[in-house]
Amino acid sequence: WKLLWQNWFGIAPEDPLDVAREKFVREIIRLWGKQLGTASAVEAAHLIGSLIGLEWPNSRYLSPFENDREAQMNRAFELCRELLQRICSSRLTILWLDDLQWADRSSLDLIAYLFEPNSSPLPLLVLGGARLEFIRQQSRLVNLAQVITLSPLPVEARYVAAAYADLRDLPLDVLTEL
């Protein structure tokens, strides 16, 4: 999720913390839209931002959760779902999550939370890529999805050359190895 939000909001890894926070709040406010609700865009920015490691010293939105990390995470998950709902209501949205086998536990928990069968469905297409071992180990996520097993591409230089134009002129044995 960290990379997703950083890429979407134009936050560079080398951005100072105050710049990253300012970009994050600005973009959450833009995406939150004019719909009123029980939460403000700034509250959403602080709680969702805390999921990806943004620190908000003396935040009035985080202070009620100082001694209850689980409650803070639950609230952040709720606001993340609300943000995605708002994004999806304004445009068609596809969420591509690749290499899910490398995801941390809280990211997987958020994915499971977003697509719980008991909640109203998000109008969102989610495409995820993961290794077969991950699929075997994550029954709770697999039960929320339609799994499509893909076979590996044949080991042929032409596939690499077609996918990466800059590499076309490499020798065939190098392209085959790639």
End-to-end gap = 29 Å
Helix and strand run: HHHHEHEHHHH
> What's the overall average pLDDT, rounded?
89
Structural class: mainly alpha
Helix content: 40-55%
Q: Strands of the largest sheet, in order across it? A: 1-2
Beta-strand percentage range: under 5%
Strand segment tally: 2
Uncertain segments:
none
Radius of gyration: 20 Å
Q: How many distinct helices?
A: 9
3D architecture notes:
- By secondary structure, this protein is mainly alpha-helical.
- It has nine helices and two strands.
- It has a two-stranded parallel sheet with strand order 1-2.
- β1, α5 and β2 form a beta-alpha-beta unit.
- α2 crosses α3 and α3 crosses α4.
- The longest helix has 22 residues.
- The chain is globular and about 60 Å long.
- The two termini are 29 Å apart.
- The mean pLDDT is 89.
Features:
178 residues, mainly alpha, two-stranded parallel sheet, 9 helices, 51% helix, 4% strand, globular
Question: How would you sum up this structure in a few lines?
Answer:
The protein has helices at residues 2-9, 17-32, 41-51, 69-90, 105-114, 132-137, 139-142, 157-163, 172-177, and strands at residues 94-97, 125-128. It is mainly alpha-helical and 178 residues long.
